[in-house]
Amino acid sequence: MKLTLLVGTMTGTAQLVAQELELAWDGSDDLQVETLLMDQLDSSVFERDGVFLVVTSTYGQGDVPDNARSFYEDLKAKRPDLSRVRYGVFGLGDRTYAETFNFGGKRFDDILQELGAQRIGERVQHDASSGVLPEEMAAEWGEGWLALAKEAVPA
Ligand SMILES: Cc1cc2nc3c(=O)[nH]c(=O)nc-3n(C[C@H](O)[C@H](O)[C@H](O)COP(=O)(O)O)c2cc1C
Asked: CA 45, CA 130: separation in Å to the nearest integer?
């Protein structure tokens, strides 16, 4: 199975999470993992085979990070049919921003659902003020999510 991590980040935390997941999944049979920063992406990335995991933080007033903006806007503008796409979301945020907690991940989840993609598992919401390190949360969560992804996309 191919698994593509799509990373939206401002200060690198989401990238750290992606690195940790790659490490945790290293050695899993028949799994090819690739991490892409969202900077240069457009909606055509979803033409790839396999499953996707969006790992993104939240900035501004509940916005996606700067490096995710053009990718997110491209999805909203082009509205491709993503009914063949299976994806997960690991969102990063901070509950101090109560009104917009984890909206970066939520925005991607909402647009992917609108375009017909099907989520694997629940959307994860890391909280920076919880005291739990996001990469630790990811490593624990990643095993279960990978099992769900393999069920969703039999080899
Ligand atoms: C200026 C600023 C604005 C933020 N706005 C939000 C927000 O609206 N909602 C939220 O849940 N988190 C918000 N956060 C928290 C970040 O999403 C969180 O710290 C995250 O772990 C950063 O990840 P990154 O280093 O990958 O960008 C904000 C952080 C900063 C510094």
From this structure: 33
